[in-house]
Every structure is written in C-alpha cells, then in structure tokens.
Amino acid sequence: MLGSRITALLAKRRNWVIPYVVFMMIFVIAPLFLIVYYAFTDADGAFSLVNFRKFMVHPESVNTFVYSVGIALITTLACLVLSYPAAWILSRSDNSTSQTIVMLFILPMWVNILIRTLATVALFDFLNMPLGEGALIFGMIYNFLPFMLYPIYNTLQKMDKSLIEAAQDLGATPSQVFLKVIFPLSMPGIMSGVVMVFMPTISTFAIAELLTMNNIKLFGTTIQENINNGMWNYGAALSLIMLLLMGVTCLLGGDDDNETNEGGLM
Using CB atoms within 10 A of its CB, is residue 102 exposed (0-12), middle (13-18) or buried (19+)? Predict the structure, then answer.
C-alpha cells in the first residue's frame, strides 16, 4: 500500500515541486519574513520605524553605506574593463584553447573565498605592500573577476558571426561593427556579470576585514557587528536596506532580452 501511494504521488509531475517549495519556505521565505519583522519592530516587538530613523540620523552608517556602494561600483567597473577584452579574445580563439584558458580563470573559484583572501594577504606581506583600500579593491577584483568574465565570454561565443559579416559587407568600419553589433549583442552577458559582481561585493565583509586589518568597514561589516552585538532590529533594518539595493540592481539588470539582443547599423 505504501509503495503504491508513493508511486501515485510521484506519477504527478506537479508533486515533484513539493521539496523545492518546502526548501524555499524554510530557507528563503522564513528568513526574509524575519528580517522584515525585526526591521519594522523595536526591542519590545511593537511596530516602529525607529531602526530606519536611526540609520538616517547616524552619519557613520550612511557614510559606510555610500562608501560600500562606491567600492562595489569601482570593483564592478574594473572587472568589466578587464573581462570584456579577455572574453572577446577568447571567443575568437580556438575552441579548445579558449576553454582551457577559461577553466584557468574559473579554477581559483574551486577554493574557498576566505582561503583565497588569506592567500592575497600573504602575497601583500611577501611583497611588503601595505594593506588598505588598494588591497581591498585588488582582492575584490581578484575574487569576483570570473563572475564577470564567464557570462560575457558565454554570450560572445554564442553570438551569430553572420551578423558581423553582414555589417562588414554593408561597409561598416571595425569600430562601427563593435559599437552597432557586437556590444549591443553582448549586453545580456554584461548585465549578468554586473549583477553577479555588484551584489556579492556590496554585501561582503570578510574580504574587507582581512585585507584592511579591519581598519575599513563596509556595510556588510556594520550589519555583522550589530547582529553579533544582539542588536537584531537595527541589523535587520540595515539588511533590508541592502536587500532593496540588490533588488533594484536585479531589476536594472533584467531588461527585456528583445531590447538587449538588438543590433544593427541603423
């Protein structure tokens, strides 16, 4: 009887989503609900906006937030500038060679991010270079560069080369081919890379603590300190602000593919 019931349950495809729904309820919906609940309540559990007012009236928190956004933008822009030419060269190279080089880019991601960051600290110590803002930006770029490279490379590799040939046949110069055809068609990969780099950069704290000897605070560090000190309500409010920023980033990066895939000489 039990076996027949399990067979009947698995026979319906819609029942296969039950484990995923349960997982999302426990590990996604419930934590988000708790963040919203604590963010809009005070220490006594009453509804209040005091946590958000506290954030607005404390210049240190606002400055840390703005500084974190600035570091994330610098890291994202630097990763884009470094990744796009490399991805373009790899997409035009021999398939086996390009896949090998891409694997070498991705290979460090198999190592835990904390170990990679500690290795970066050891590298700066070996070179007698000071830890600080420069080391922080370098570590951010080193850790998140593959997240920008691979989406762009994947998009450029799948690009229809006949569109480039058609543009050249119509008399387009190499710069026009890039600006009118290649770059617009690569926008889905660029936007995916931007989201994949910007979001973890804005929320990280371990990299900043290790590469600046805890002398530079990012917004993630502020959230961590408040939660570790038992200030759950204020920490939840800061987390909600960061989640809203990430949501805006996802919305900006989720433009219609029909628009981002357009290319031409007109």
Answer: buried
CA 101 to chain centre: 22
Contacts of range 59-65, beta carbons closer than 8 Å, 24 or more positions apart? 61/222, 61/238, 64/217, 64/218, 64/219, 64/221, 64/222, 65/219, 65/241
Nearest-angstrom CA–CA distance, 177 and 171: 9
What residue ranges of the chain have pLDDT lower than 50? 256-266
Of 221, 199, 61, 216, nearest to 135 by C-alpha is 216
Angstrom distance (rounded) from CA 122 to CA 129: 10
Rounded (10°) CA dihedral 135, 136, 138, 142: 130
Q: What is the pLDDT of residue 214?
A: 86
Tokens coding 170 = 């119509």
Phi, psi of 94 (to 5 degrees): -60, 140
Tokens of 247: 């949501």
Rg (CA), the chain: 23
Give the pLDDT confidence of 138-176 residue by residue, as tens digits: 999 999 999 999 999 999 988 888 888 898 888 888 899
3-state SS, residue 40: coil
d(CA 223, CA 35): 12
Tell me which DSSP letter residue 168 carries: H
Three-point CA angle 46, 48, 53, nearest 5°? 150
The residue with tokens 């019931």 is 5
User: What are 3's two structure tokens?
Assistant: 């076996």
CA atoms within 13 Å, Cβ hemisphere of 131: 21
What CA–CA distance (Å, rounded) separates 50 from 237? 10
